[in-house]
Write a structure and sequence with these properties.
Structural class: mainly beta
Helix content: 10-25%
Number of strands: 8
Radius of gyration: 17 Å
Order of helices and strands: HEEEEEEEE
Length: about 140
Amino acid sequence: MLFLTLFLLPVLLFLHTVYADHSTCSWVRTKKSPSTLGYVMSCSAKYVSDGLEKGHYECDTNTTRQPANWGFLRRHTLEMSTPCGKHGWAFSNYDGSCPGRTFAMCINSNAGTCFYMQSGDDCEWPGEFTPTTKPGALEFWVNA
């Protein structure tokens, strides 16, 4: 038993340091549309239910691109997937290179209800969305 404890402790500590902490989206560049900063629309994504209080968002032009999900990370949590990190959603529509350095994720781009992130990041939208308040659609913008 002591051997098992001494063996597993370093392994668990190593695994804890390998993965980066998940973060809450916080970078806001403007309270206007991302287009005012030179961003172009990359994906308009509609919500698709995966079962009771879980679902994902699929890009209209390519349903294999799923840039966000709801309820998978935690109950009522809206998570923005990495665009160009490991298994990034933005790669599937391009030649394997990342289409931009920064991305905007918007609930309402006209009102500037957006958060920004680097191409290799992911984050969760602040707060919770219940089944009746979760967005029916999201917009994803890219700035090369």
